[in-house]
Amino acid sequence: MLPKPKKHWTPSHWASWKPFGIGEQYPNNYWEVFRAIWLSRHKLPYAWNILNKGVCDGCALGTTGMKDWTVDGIHVCNVRLRLLQMNTMPAFDPAILADVSALQTKKSAELRELGRLPYPMIRQSGEKGFRRVNWDEALEAIASRIRATTPDRLSFYITSRGTVNETYYATQKAVRAMGTNNIDNAARICHSPSTAGLKGAIGAAATTCSYKDWIGTDLLVFIGSNVANNQPVTVKYLHNAKKAGTRIVVINTYREPGMERYWVPSIPESALFGTKFAEDFFLVNMGGDMAFLNGTIKHMIANGWVDESFINRYTAGFDELKAFLETQSWEKLEQLSGAKRDEMYAFAKMVGEANKAVFVWSMGITQHECGEDNVRAIINLALTKGFVGREGCGLMPIRGHSGVQGGAEMGCYATVFPGGKPIIPENAAQLSKLWGFDVPVTKGLIAPEMIHAASEGQLDVLFSVGGNFLEVLPEPDYVEDALKRVPMRVHMDIVLSSQMLVEPTDTVVLLPATTRYEIPGGVTETSTERRVIFSPEIPGPRIGEARPEWEVFMELARRVRPELADKLAFVDTAGMRQEIAQVVLQYAGIQHLKEAGDQFQYSGSHLCFGWNFPTADGKAHFAVVSRGERELPEGSFLVATRRGKQFNSMVQERKDAITGAVREAVFINEVDAKHFGLNDGDVVILTNELGNLKGKVYTAPIKPGNLQVHWPEGNVLLDKSKRSREGVPDYNAVVRLEKVD
Q1: Which of 131-135, 399-403, 721-725 comes out lowest in average pLDDT?
Q2: Rounded Cα distance, 112 and 114, in Å
Q3: Which residues contact 377 (CB under 8 A, 6 or more apart)?
Q4: SS3 sequence, 203-255?
Q5: For position 252, what pLDDT does the model report?
Q6: Reported confidence tier of residue 315, pLDDT bands at 50, 70, 90
Q7: Which residues pair with 706 in a beta bridge?
Q8: Of 308, 376, 409, 666, which sits with the fewest C-beta atoms within 10 Å of its C-beta?
Q9: Do 274 and 21 contact (CB within 8 A), yes or no?
Q10: How confident is the model at residue 507 (pLDDT cuts 50, 70, 90)?
Q11: What percent of the chain lies above the pLDDT cut of 90?
Q12: According to the model, what pLDDT value does residue 227 have?
């Protein structure tokens, strides 16, 4: 059993003796509460019910109302409070879309603040803006275009922001009934390398443990992950972990302030004096994680800190990894990682001395050309001590969106069917028999490939639910040009986005969507820890003619394939959950979720429990991974893109409350700044062969030779051709820095 958090106050954990961190830089969460109340003041009872009864549509921690299954107390973070406005704001007057020229100059944040999209709208080539149409006219326009082309020239994309399992499932079924596997979701550009890496190594493609395993484990390691910013409720878990004696370590390019200390507003001790989280930071080069982890394992082998009994009985491939590491010199590992041999030793000693450990990672690991290998390097380290399949141990690719875990599992993916089954004839035949229509057997286009096909004139219809290709993919000018080449674009969302306003080649259709809280019958989401949670419909105001996405896709498919009408209908979401339980076997139990608070954790609290690995040989597999040498031209920097006061690409504030940096900040080490004669606030330009970005110097504790800029602003520097094996864009680049006089 894991140690419990100590109840007495612990001054050695305090971030500051100054009451309430006066003068320190950190989010004013109390102000966020008052701000949310003010912005929702006209619908306060509805807003309260959303918070108190609905499942959070923010990150993938998965609270039900304002409680969870990890620690007691009330949980509501500033991200959720910011999203609350979108769930309670009124509709805009559709007349504002009659001429979009003025709107095209606005930022996405300004477009969101206009209000909810209330009615279907259509704009055709040569028109200044959109006109209102009824649902029948809108859907028939889309269906007729689909019927007039071939399935290979169709593409469908669904974001994961607030999207629920039922929407994912119905959408992928409808799209496959229309004859194509060209459907993808936001998981593609986030954690698809994690899914592939875990599946290949241990046979299980999801987080192996629970959040409770953070609290009381010996060692909790965050690699390329900043949960204080992106999953703010976890700071309560980190506080409790510290109180239970857990050692917290961060491996990253930048010493994230929120991972170092935080003032947790709902815990009196922390609200008053703050909490110090990470005891140790290991700073590595952008992309240097693999070399650092290889060096760590090399030390562990040399010092006898690996669990040979576990390795011999339950794993394969360790001898090959060991032999490879013997060929890697310390000089090469230091060069690639940016860390010293002694630093790798210090971390290896921590891992070697730990009896239990949990490894958490995010976009800093996956969004590289070598994303899959980065993940396998983490798994390699965990397997040296058997840190999987038991209490206080685990591998956790932490999710940033409330809907993203269920997306691929429901089959809303170009490369797998529901349940993660590969797209092969046998699996297609099974689905065909169950659904009553032929299911395509050819893998579909993943999200970046959809834009490439559009650019090449190979798409006739692009249907995007939520999301914004202009702000999530590299080379935004290229993306915009590609969107202009698609004869029919359909955008379904609750608010306006900049991609909706891109000039039409022929026709652009806007469709108004409901939020998860407005869907009749209630819905479910799946959290990072594989917990499937029921979110009830919240009675309250409704917006114009907004409809649930799942209903729209079912009707569209019936219009395209009228002969399948009886096979493309669900009475309600409860009926859909009955089918999901049959098709996605690990979700058996979802059919019983009916009321607020209903939930279950599929496959239990730990995957691979007792070291039973669902691989072909029943063993976990080490992998030989290494990144090639990278020579930086003189005066060049490695640059990574980062989030800051935003929810994915949805910028929520100009200034990041944790770092104090504004959107145009270029994070740079003080030594590098001095070398270039730069001071805070100086204007610089970052350039490479793809574009340039003007910003302002912000000196920060970042690894020398590395820079960070905010995303999506930094997308102009990224190369669309650089992607991981699973298709994740590489959100990093090499740039030159010049001072602007």
Answers
A1: 399-403
A2: 5
A3: 289, 290, 293, 294, 625
A4: CCCCCCCCHHHHCCCCEEEEECCCHHHHCCCHHHHHHHHHHCCCEEEEEECEC
A5: 97
A6: very high
A7: 638
A8: 308
A9: yes
A10: very high
A11: 91
A12: 94
172, 213: one domain: no
Q: Residue 707 pairs with which residues in a beta bridge? A: 639, 668
Angle at 135 between CA 129 and CA 138, to 5 degrees: 50
Residues 380 and 412 grouped into a single domain: no
User: 3-state DSSP: the chain helix, strand, coil percent, rounded to 5?
Assistant: 40, 20, 45
Of residues 159 and 291, which shows the higher confidence score?
291
pLDDT band for position 187 (cuts 50, 70, 90):
confident
Cβ atoms of residues 279 and 241 within 8 Å: no
Give the pLDDT confidence score for residue 647 in this predicted structure: 76
User: What is the predicted pLDDT for the residue at 574?
Assistant: 98
Q: Would the CA dihedral through 528, 471, 644, 269 be positive or negative?
A: negative
Which residue spans within 356-493 are E strands per DSSP? 357-361, 394-397, 461-465, 488-493
587 and 696 co-located in one domain: no
How far, in Å, CA of 260 to CA of 690, rounded? Answer: 35
Q: Is 300 part of a structural domain of the chain? A: yes
Q: What is the pTM of this model?
A: 0.97
Specify the residue for token string 């619908």. 43
**Is 424 found in the same domain as 311?**
no
Question: Is residue 331, in this structure, part of any structural domain at all?
Answer: yes
pLDDT at 323: 98
Q: Which CATH number covers residue 450? A: 3.40.50.740
Letter for the amino acid at 474?
Answer: P
**Residue range 38-67, pLDDT digits in tens:** 999 999 999 999 999 999 998 989 899 999
Q: Which two tokens mark 351? A: 């891992």
- Structural domain span for residue 324: 208-398
* Chain length of the chain: 741
Question: Within a domain: residue 629?
Answer: no
Angle between helices 165-177 and 425-435 (to 10 degrees): 100
548 and 457 within one domain:
yes
Residues 293 and 328 in one domain: yes
| Statement: residue 364 has pLDDT above 80 | yes
Q: What integer pLDDT is reported at residue 741 of this predicted model?
A: 82
Confidence of residue 459 (pLDDT cuts 50, 70, 90): very high
Q: Say how many domains are in the chain.
A: 3
Q: What is the mean pLDDT of residues 89-107?
A: 96
pLDDT reported for residue 403: 86
pLDDT class for 729, splitting at 50, 70, 90?
A: very high
Question: What is residue 55's predicted lDDT score, i.e. its pLDDT?
Answer: 96
Q: Distance (Å, rounded) from C-alpha 437 to C-alpha 434?
A: 8
355 and 414 assigned to the same domain: no
> Per the domain annotation, does 61 fall within a domain?
no
Distance CA 216, CA 678 (A): 44
Q: What is the dihedral of CA 721, 724, 727, 731, to 10 degrees?
A: -60
Which residue, among 249, 352, 247, 254, has the nearest Cα to 296 in the 3D structure? 352
DSSP one-letter code for 465: E
DSSP code string of 131-168:
EE--HHHHHHHHHHHHHTS-GGGEEEEE--SS--HHHH
Of 398, 424, 457, the residue at which a domain comes to its end is 398
Whole-angstrom distance, CA of residue 397 vs CA of residue 180: 30
DSSP letter for 633, please.
P
d(CA 313, CA 328): 27
If asked whether residues 167 and 216 sit together in one domain, one would say: no
| Number of helical (H) and strand (E) elements in the chain, helices listed first | 26, 27
CATH code: domain of residue 370 = 3.40.228.10
Per-residue model confidence as pLDDT tens digits over 197-206: 999 999 999 9
From the CB of residue 58, how many other CB atoms can be counted at a distance below 10 Å? Answer: 27
- For residues 413 and 187, the answer to whether their CB atoms sit within 8 Å is yes
Pick from 333, 366, 398: which residue ends a domain?
398
